Amino acid sequence: MDSTVQILEENLETILKGEGLEVGEFNSVPEEVKPVTLRKSVCYIVSAVIFNSKDELLMVQEAKPECYGRWYLPAGRMEERESILEALQREVKEEAGIDCQPITLLLVQEQGPKWVRFVFLAEETGGSLKTTAEADSESLQAQWWDRESPLPLRARDILPLIDAGIKYRRNPWFPTLQPVDISCHVICQRLFLTFISGDIDTSDEHRLWLLLSSNNATSHPSLPIAVSVNAFDTIPGAAHRLLKSCLPSSSINVHTCGILGVQHNGRIPGKTDGICFNMLVLLENSENGAEISSPPPLEGEAYKWLEVTNQSLRAKIIQRIKEESVLPVHSLY
């Protein structure tokens, strides 16, 4: 096997396993890229969905004046120099009094690159529920909720998060996923961008192509990386911008399937506060109602299509797309 193809296939397998790769050069940069800074230009929220052995849900009673006495999932903003997992464990400990271990990222919500919430399914590993005698500015108390008894909620936006946790416990639809400790100075997406011939739901005979960057500094083609710089754009919007640059005359549909991995470090404030989302994207294989059997031609030399001929790798990619076996990302705009 050609060494270039072998390296590429190994990198693709790495991404499919939820692991990460160092962030190289950016391929879609609409304007000057500046490093993001936590709590200044970006805000990251962590939230925990935790059940006990009785299927009761961990809830905390708010101490903030604007929602005093109401109940919510343990949640809060990340702080400087924290990893995403450290922020999760700190918030749960401060607000609920218990120690926890994440099971998996459950979903990601975003309002563009300026606000991102990481929702985890986690489990209790120690500590004890916070009581009213321990009330402080973080919370008044914590308790296990049977989800049937009346409980005044701070907001109903946690209900879909709870439902996602219940669904995943019953039938996990994507492999467990944890953030990977790899630094990045901006919010960006490594695009695992695919085109599949034939109807993915009705045919077993498929050809599959990946969009690759062909003008990077190394001799090896790689998955393109697009940067999110517009605070009012959605994170998946970066894929649309990139495609407009190489497929400006095409009306093909772009479907963001979900996230294959999350890369973050955060140890150096203002320099490593960024996040790289490894995103699985599908170009819908019909144009103007007519099925097309090969990817649309690209304009320029910055990108190229590569057909995936490795049967095992192709099957894994198609399965992830067909079964929607990816971490969901929800845009709240």
Automatic annotation (TrEMBL):
Name the needed cofactors.
Mg(2+); Mn(2+)
Q: What is its EC number?
A: 3.6.1.58
The reaction(s) this protein catalyses = 8-oxo-GDP + H2O = 8-oxo-GMP + phosphate + H(+); 8-oxo-dGDP + H2O = 8-oxo-dGMP + phosphate + H(+); 8-oxo-dADP + H2O = 8-oxo-dAMP + phosphate + H(+); 2-oxo-dADP + H2O = 2-oxo-dAMP + phosphate + H(+)
InterPro entries in the record, alphabetically?
A: NUDIX_hydrolase-like_dom_sf, NUDIX_hydrolase_CS, NUDIX_hydrolase_dom, NUDT18_NUDIX
Q: Which UniProt keywords apply?
A: Hydrolase, Magnesium, Manganese, Metal-binding
As recorded in UniProt, coiled-coil segments are none
Q: Which GO terms describe its molecular function?
A: 8-oxo-dGDP phosphatase activity; 8-oxo-GDP phosphatase activity; metal ion binding
The text of the family note is:
Belongs to the Nudix hydrolase family.
Q: Give a short account of what the protein does.
A: Mediates the hydrolysis of oxidized nucleoside diphosphate derivatives. Hydrolyzes 8-oxo-7,8-dihydroguanine (8-oxo-Gua)-containing deoxyribo- and ribonucleoside diphosphates to the monophosphates. Hydrolyzes 8-oxo-dGDP and 8-oxo-GDP with the same efficiencies. Also hydrolyzes 8-OH-dADP and 2-OH-dADP. Exhibited no or minimal hydrolysis activity against 8-oxo-dGTP, 8-oxo-GTP, dGTP, GTP, dGDP and GDP. Probably removes oxidized guanine nucleotides from both the DNA and RNA precursor pools.
Q: What is this protein called?
A: 8-oxo-dGDP phosphatase NUDT18
Q: Which organism is it from?
A: Cirrhinus molitorella (mud carp)
